[in-house]
Amino acid sequence: MDKMALWSGRHTTMASNSKPCLYLHRQDLRLEDNPALTAAIDSGRPVIPVFVWAPEEQGDWSPGAASRWWLHHSLSRLAEAYKKLNVELLFFKGKTAEVVDRLIAENDVEAVYWNRRYEPAAVEHDKQLKQSLKDREIEVHSFNGALLCEPWEVETQQGDPYQVFTPFWKSVRQKIKPGKPLNAPKEMQSAKIKVKSCQLDDFGLLPKLDWADAFTDTWTPGEEGAREKLSEFIKNGIDDYKEQRDFPAGRGTSRLSPHLHLGEISPTQVWHAVEVHLNRKRKNDGQPGADSYLSEIGWREFGYHILYHFPKTTDKALKSNFEGFPWKYSKKNLRQWQKGNTGYPIVDAGMRELWETGWMHNRVRMIVGSFLTKDLLLSWKKGAQWFWDTLVDADLANNTLGWQWVAGSGADAAPYFRIFNPILQAERYDPKGEYVRRWVPELADLPDKWIHKPWEAPDEVLEKAGVTLGETYPEPMVDHFEARDAALGIYKKIK
DNA sequence: TGAAATGTTGGGGCG
DNA sequence: ACGCCCCAACATTTC
Question: What CATH number does domain A320-494 carry, 1.10.10.10, 1.20.1250.20, 3.40.50.2000, 1.10.579.10?
Answer without folding.
Answer: 1.10.579.10
